[in-house]
From TrEMBL:
GO BP field: protein maturation
InterPro entries: Hyd_form_HypD, HypD_1, HypD_2_sf
Pfam families: HypD (PF01924)
Listed name of the protein: Hydrogenase formation protein HupD
Similarity field: Belongs to the HypD family.
Record keyword Transit peptide present: no
Keyword Ribonucleoprotein tagged: no
Length: 362
């Protein structure tokens, strides 16, 4: 608790913001990858402490936000089956599909349960052998180890009634997609500390070199974020482009090798659709063939379900840093947390939800 207070110390924050002002001489656009970082920035008003030359743009780092619409619809189809207990983290229940959400399925009689660990879903499968138990395995690299731990345990227990609907995505391919786009405006990246705590940051130097862009690994507290911004601005002003670690208390370059070994054991790299953005090649993970019996998409034959994105929601542009939430004509009108058009308005890490909560008047 004392450590948390120190990283939120107002005097330290003001002093670091002043250092950033002193070193900034030109306009710079810096993207924070993670939606949790976006919420911290707006919650503490960090962007308002920065000089006007620095604009923070919000990236696609919210796993709920980028889970494709077709996967949401596949989840709804599976969850509506009378022989299924569908399990998920709570933040997925209000994410809109083409027709309703998981709360709607539950209201109509579906057995949809909120869990706090994928291993809870395994226990539900053990206690309900007459039901098919499905876990919605979403997330970036951070959630991959616990998600696949459930599959490993289910196989060890020889559970025949357990499966996972996988929506696992990876950060580096998304960075490539953003930086290679003709409309790209990102000049520096704040990398997500929790992702790097698992994966390290050994994948990032080739990106920094290829696109001549500085990348700084940082955490989520105000001082963490400002330190990351400070180090990024110094690089931008000097014209350098390396990867720096401003979150060394939690992140090492090599990351958690044991977790990475688990990931490689169960997952293989696949193409993945990102909601509002589209297909990003080799940007996700799916189950290897030897674990295919735990693949809910195959077990329930829902892979054929295809969808059409809303022509009103501009979440894809927001997730690529091209627009801010309050630049959407539907923001706070047709699209609210009670009646969302997209996941970015209901996710606890969504940029639209952050703006609605902290910046609606602006």
């Amino acid at each position: 608790m004392q450590l948390t207070k120190e990283f939120r110390n107002a005097d330290y924050i003001k002093a670091l913001a002043e250092k950033i002002r002193r070193v900034t001489t030109r306009p710079w656009n810096i993207m924070e990858i993670c939606g949790g970082q976006t919420h911290s920035i707006l919650h503490y008003g960090l962007d308002q402490l920065l000089p006007p030359e620095i604009e923070l743009v919000h990236g696609p780092g919210c796993p709920v936000c980028v889970t494709s619409l077709e996967l949401i619809d596949q989840a709804l189809a599976i969850a509506a089956r009378p022989d299924v207990i569908f399990t998920s983290f709570g933040d997925m229940l209000r994410v809109p599909g083409s027709h309703g959400d998981l709360f709607t399925v539950r209201a109509n009689g579906g057995d949809v349960r909120v869990i706090y660990s994928p291993l809870d879903a395994v226990q539900i499968a053990i206690k309900n052998p007459d039901k098919e138990v499905v876990f919605f395995a979403i997330g970036f690299e951070t959630t991959a180890p616990p998600n696949i731990a459930s599959v490993i345990q289910a196989r060890a227990l020889d559970l025949k009634n357990y499966s996972v609907l996988v929506s696992q995505v990876c950060v580096p391919p998304a960075m490539h997609a953003i930086l290679s786009a003709p409309q790209n405006r990102v000049q520096g990246f704040l990398a997500a500390g929790h992702v790097c705590s698992v994966m390290g940051y050994w994948e990032y130097p080739p990106i920094a070199e290829q696109y001549c862009i500085p990348i700084t690994v940082t955490g989520f507290e105000p001082l963490d974020l400002l330190q990351g911004i400070y180090q990024t601005v110094i690089q931008l002003e000097r014209g350098t482009h390396i990867v720096e670690n401003a979150y060394s208390r939690a992140v090492t370059q090599e990351g958690n090798r044991a977790a990475q070994a688990m990931i490689n054991q169960v997952y293989q790299t696949v193409d993945r659709n990102w909601r509002g953005i589209g297909l990003i090649p080799q940007s996700g993970w799916g189950l290897r063939d030897e674990f295919s019996t735990f693949d809910a998409q195959k077990r329930f034959d829902v892979g054929h379900i295809k969808t059409q994105e809303s022509d009103i929601c501009i979440a894809g542009q927001i997730l690529q840093g091209l627009k801010k939430p309050n630049q959407c004509p539907a923001f706070g009108k047709q699209c609210t947390p009670e009646n969302p058009l997209g996941a970015t308005m209901v996710s606890s890490e969504g940029a639209c939800a952050a703006y609605y909560r902290y910046r609606r008047e602006n």
